[in-house]
Design a protein that fits this description.
Layout lengths: L1 H40 L7 H4 L12 H22 L3 H10 L7 H39 L6 H24 L1 H6 L4 H25 L13 H29 L7 H22 L1 H9 L6 H11 L1 H22 L2 H31 L5 H36 L4 H36 L23 H28 L5 H17 L1 H16 L7 E3 L4 E7 L3 E5 L5 E5 L7 E2 L5 E9 L5 H18 L1 H6 E13 L4 E9 L4 H19 L22 H15 L15
Antiparallel strand pairs: 1-2, 1-5, 2-3, 3-4, 6-8, 7-8
């Protein structure tokens, strides 16, 4: 497995290197011919390069997409020519930038000053580590022994300890600036180092929160401890290199006296993108786990899983986009777009980390059980969703501020744009908050509704499902209605805030609704019929109904149809318009009548008294039966007298929740008590009695037999012969 991952890393590294090599070759291939053609076609005496190389302003060019594209191409040509012409001066420019970091302009002095800065950095890092470890050691020790894992509060406490250590790092380094300047370090180097190092420690917080080396229980992704430690060290070094390169690049670009600021920026950007590509490949397991998340069901989970599987090509594409954004921004003087793009990526990364924290909080809230725990679960789920919405709201407003600043609008236009975005996003958030509170109230009342269908044979000795109340039956439909209404109103308000005229949309929706109503009369009939069924309270979820053609337990109610689960398992979906008359077998009470076949000659009074005693005894001995039975068991009378049995009818009245279970309990008691009382059940056997020979008979019996047999003998019919034994018919 490790060898396979190593080969995959090498392949991905080769693909990334090949990608950047193609970009570099394309850049050189574009720049060199243009520079050669410009030098050959335009003599310096007649057309000064400073005039010929300046791209035209957008106002001087063709307006529209074609003009904008031409402006971009001319800017790229200008940048390519400028960069190629400055390539020979790049080493000297870098040397000048390096010397400027020393107050005496010495390269060795800048190196020595960098060494003093490194020493101060080590002292600040030591102070940060001691502070963070000293504050959080008790919490870390508790997390090592805890089985259930840390809560969100524990994770926030760890983050607070890290933030305290970061503050100590900043204080120590800032107060060391006087000492650094006293030993000969220039002010520019101190400021550059402070900018770079403080940014670096802030950036390191994100991988530290996710990986948590040394605290596996607090880790937000599932990776081994060794891998977490290696990734933490690797990302810390890479982030330091990236931050240092970016800081030095900004320092070089801000120096107008530099000979090749754009070349320095391009070199720095290429190096940073190469490091980013290395991070994409090296840390792909951690990033994939971060993107995938805990959830394994739903559309969002499937999309996140697909994004995690395709992370390497997506990440390399993002890195290439960063480089292209920088090139375009440097060429056209639009680096604000590049900064906005980088800020967007940073906000998305922070969003993923916060998402994992909120998921951890949601898993913590799933622990309790029971009715109170069910309400706690609904509240925790709603809080989790609202918290995610708040985080998303803050992220959207932050991104909007970044991109509005990048557009370089006037103060009035920027304020108006920000106000519009804030109003639109705030409207959506308020609508979502109303919907979430509405759903919480509805789910709170629906938590006692009967669950899904039970498999046949799994609930023979268990309680039957309790039917839902009338309110619980209507609430799912109300929830769907409120969701659609709140969503439509929120969209209309947002469009109105954005300056869109919503009157034509409402009119068009009315015309469309009229056309739909004419074209789908059966649908309208089903919906209206369903509303009247709900109004009449004809049935509820969990009740057993008979529609004449189909019957079953009401499993769910929709806008236009009801779903019935037959007791054998099939699920019937019936439109309300086709229900017709409905027989509800689960309302108020149920009188159960059943027959028992007893043998002829059974004492009727004994059966009546025994049945009454059984009913009263079960009322006293079984509280569960007593709570369900309204009228106890009794004998109703003789239903039928058959050839070999007397059919007795029994009945009882019970609540409609579980009459079948009560009948089974009565039958078990009847079978046992009747045997004790000598009351026998009828047998299906037919008994024949033998007739003795005529020779042994005398008196009236012989006369009766003679009268019965004489007609048969006179007619020539063979006399009856009695069988030797009785048989079963």
């Amino acid at each position: 497995m490790g060898l396979r991952l190593k080969h995959l890393s090498r392949d991905a590294l080769r693909r990334g290197a090949r990608f950047y090599l193609i970009i570099a070759l394309a850049w050189v291939a574009l720049a060199v011919p243009i520079a050669w053609a410009a030098d050959a076609a335009t003599p310096p005496a007649e057309a000064p390069p400073a005039v010929a190389e300046v791209p035209a302003e957008p106002s001087e060019m063709t307006t529209g997409p074609a003009g904008w594209l031409a402006h971009i191409i001319m800017g790229l040509e200008h940048e390519a020519i400028s960069d190629v012409s400055m390539l020979p001066d790049t080493p000297s420019a870098l040397e000048r930038e390096w010397r400027s970091l020393d107050r005496n302009g010495s390269a060795l002095g800048a190196l020595i000053g960098l060494g003093w800065v490194a020493l101060a950095t080590c002292l600040a890092l030591l102070a940060e580590r001691l502070t963070a470890r000293g504050v959080s050691w008790r919490l870390r020790r508790a997390l090592r022994t805890r089985i259930a894992g840390p809560s969100v509060g524990d994770l926030l406490l760890l983050l607070l300890c890290d933030a305290l250590g970061l503050a100590v790092f900043g204080v120590v380094f800032v107060y060391s600036r006087h000492w650094l300047m006293n030993v000969g370090v220039s002010l520019s180097l101190v400021l550059l180092a402070a900018n770079v190092l403080i940014r670096w420690r802030i950036f390191v917080l994100i991988p530290r929160i996710v990986l948590r080396p040394g605290a596996p229980a607090a880790r937000l992704i599932d990776i081994p401890e060794d891998e977490a430690r290696r990734l933490s060290r690797f990302l810390s070094v890479v982030l330091l290199a990236i931050t240092a390169l970016v800081g030095f690049g900004r320092y070089g670009l801000s120096d107008e006296d530099s000979g090749a600021p754009h070349v320095i920026g391009l070199v720095v950007a290429s190096a940073v993108c190469a490091l980013d590509a290395w991070v994409v490949i090296r840390a792909r397991s951690a990033i994939e786990a971060l993107v995938r998340g805990h959830r394994s069901e739903g559309i969002i989970a499937a999309l996140r899983g697909a994004l995690a599987r395709a992370w390497v090509p997506i990440g390399l594409t993002i890195v290439g986009g960063l480089l292209l954004f920088f090139i375009f921004g440097l060429s056209l003087g639009l680096l604000a777009y590049y900064h906005a793009f980088v800020s967007t990526l940073g906000v998305l990364l922070v969003l993923m980390v916060v998402e994992r924290l909120t998921e951890r909080g949601w898993h913590d809230s799933e622990a309790p059980h029971g009715r109170a725990a069910g309400f706690h679960r609904f509240v925790a789920l709603s809080f989790h969703r609202i918290l995610r919405a708040i985080v998303l709201l803050i992220a959207i407003l932050t991104l909007a501020s970044f991109w509005i600043d990048a557009l370089d609008l006037t103060a009035t236009s920027a304020a108006q744009a920000m106000h519009t975005v804030t109003a639109a996003v705030g409207t959506l958030f308020v609508a979502y908050l109303i919907w979430e509170l509405t759903r919480l109230a509805i789910d709170r009342n629906l938590q006692d509704m009967p669950g899904g269908p039970k498999l046949p044979g799994t609930a023979d000795d268990e309680e039957e499902s309790t039917p839902a109340s009338r309110l619980q039956t209507i609430l799912p439909i109300m929830r769907a209605f409120f969701g659609v209404a709140i969503g439509v109103l929120a969209v209309l308000i947002v469009l109105s805030r954005l300056g869109v005229d919503t009157a034509p949309l409402i009119a068009g929706a009315g015309v469309f609704g009229l056309a739909v109503s004419f074209g789908s009369q059966s649908l309208v009939r089903d919906i209206i019929s369903g509303l009247f069924y709900m109004w009449d309270d004809a049935f509820r979820v969990g009740e057993y109904i008979d529609t004449g053609r189909l019957k079953g337990t009401v499993e769910s109610l929709g806008v236009r149809s009801v779903k019935l689960r037959h007791h054998n398992g099939p699920l019937h979906t019936i439109p309300y318009g086709q229900l017709g008359a409905v027989t509800n077998l689960s309302r108020d009470f149920a009188t159960i009548k059943f027959n028992l076949r007893l043998e002829p000659g059974t004492d009727i009074e004994l059966v009546r008294k025994t049945a009454k005693q059984i009913g009263l005894a079960m009322q006293q001995e079984s509280p569960e039966v007593a709570s369900e039975v309204i009228l106890p068991l009794k004998m109703q009378g003789i239903a039928e007298v058959a050839d070999n049995a007397v059919v007795f009818r029994f009945k009882f009245t019970a609540r409609p929740l579980k009459p079948s279970w009560i009948q089974r309990e009565y039958l078990k008691r009847i079978y046992r008590v009747f045997a004790e009382k000598g009351i026998n059940f009828a047998s299906g056997a037919l008994t024949l009695q033998t007739v003795p020979a005529r020779a042994g008979l005398s008196g009236p019996a012989a006369q009766v037999i003679e009268e019965a047999l004489s007609p048969r003998e006179s007619a020539g019919v063979a006399p009856l012969r009695a069988p030797a034994a009785s048989g079963a018919a």
